[in-house]
Design goal:
By secondary structure, the chain is α/β, with parallel strands linked by helices. It folds into 2 domains: 6-171 and 252-259, 3-Layer(aba) Sandwich (Rossmann fold), CATH 3.40.50.360; 183-234, 2-Layer Sandwich (Alpha-Beta Plaits). Helix content is 28%, strand content 18%. Helix 1 (16-26) crosses helix 4 (136-155). The protein starts with 5 loop residues before the first strand and ends with a strand. 41% of the residues are buried. The chain binds flavin mononucleotide.
Length: 260
């Protein structure tokens, strides 16, 4: 089949998933168009892809699941038996039901999954876990996934016989309630609004960036990383407890898993 365009549909509050999806894309011989859902959109865009598009879906794993906010965006993303490949990045703990959930979500919306992969990355909450991953060696493995997908796209005329199996359970794990919610320090916040503009969940008020709607906040910590004044932080005791727990269950040297 003569392929049209490569579409990148992803969620990446703190940039690791973006780095991975771009490296995969670099190895696919198609012009690419990005749909980055980590930029908050009041109205969820409607995306309809054709049979000869190829779509790469990328997510960070949150509590062993697809981030709920991204799953909401996916409701408006449909294909016509459109070939697609999956990318999940995770912070060296586990990815549990994230890949199977992502596969179900996209297949129910008209996509045919022809590849899937889970890549370990720096943990976006405790950055000493898997520090600086994806690193040089990871990028080679990530590029190879792109090369293999490209080969598959060129070789196959129809993808009906491809049957990708990924680990995970149904029903999926329950969403975790153990999140760290950042707050603004009213004294050091200069109201520059960088946090409000970059929040993927629209949880920080543009008018008053010192207030956060904790019902909307997804605990991604992008605002903490982006604030030049270091005015946004999570409760230090809660952070230390989370850090201690995560350090026991994460392994910084986890390997990528690729399903083709
Ligand atoms: C709220 C939240 C939940 C997370 N849950 C998991 C998890 O279940 N397993 C895991 O290994 N990493 C977990 N992580 C780490 C991220 O999946 C990982 O760092 C990912 O690469 C971040 O991607 P991004 O930089 O594209 O946002 C979590 C991070 C956050 C902020």
């Amino acid at each position: 089949m003569k392929m049209n365009e490569l579409k990148l549909v992803y969620f990446s509050p703190t940039g690791r998933t973006r780095k991975v999806i771009m490296e995969v894309a670099r190895n696919i011989d198609l012009k690419s168009v990005s749909h980055d859902f980590s930029v908050y959109k009041e109205k969820k865009p409607v995306l309809k892809f054709a049979e000869n598009d190829f779509v790469l879906f990328g997510i960070p794993v949150y509590g062993g699941r697809v981030p709920a906010l991204f799953a909401q965006y996916l409701q408006n993303v449909t294909g016509k038996n459109t070939p697609a490949a999956l990318i999940a990045t995770y912070g060296c703990r586990e990815y549990e039901d994230a890949l199977i959930e992502l596969k179900d979500l996209v297949e129910n919306n008209g996509f045919k999954v022809i590849g899937a992969a889970a890549f370990p990355a720096e943990h976006s909450i405790v950055e000493t876990i898997g520090a600086r991953r994806p690193n040089k060696a990871d990028m080679k493995v990530i590029a190879e996934y792109g090369v293999n997908l490209n080969r598959r796209l060129k070789k196959e005329d129809n993808f009906d016989n491809i049957d990708i199996h990924v680990p995970g359970n149904r029903p999926y794990r329950k969403y975790s309630k153990n999140m760290l919610f950042p707050k603004a320090d009213v004294n050091s916040c200069t109201e520059c609004k960088a946090c409000a503009r970059s929040c993927p969940a629209g949880a920080i008020s543009i008018k008053d960036p010192k207030t956060t709607d904790h019902k909307k906040c997804i605990g991604c910590l992008k605002c903490v990383r982006i604030c030049k004044q270091n005015a946004r932080s999570v409760n230090s005791l809660k952070y230390r407890i989370a850090e201690g727990k995560l350090k026991k269950v994460c392994q910084s040297d986890k390997a990528a898993e690729i399903f083709l």
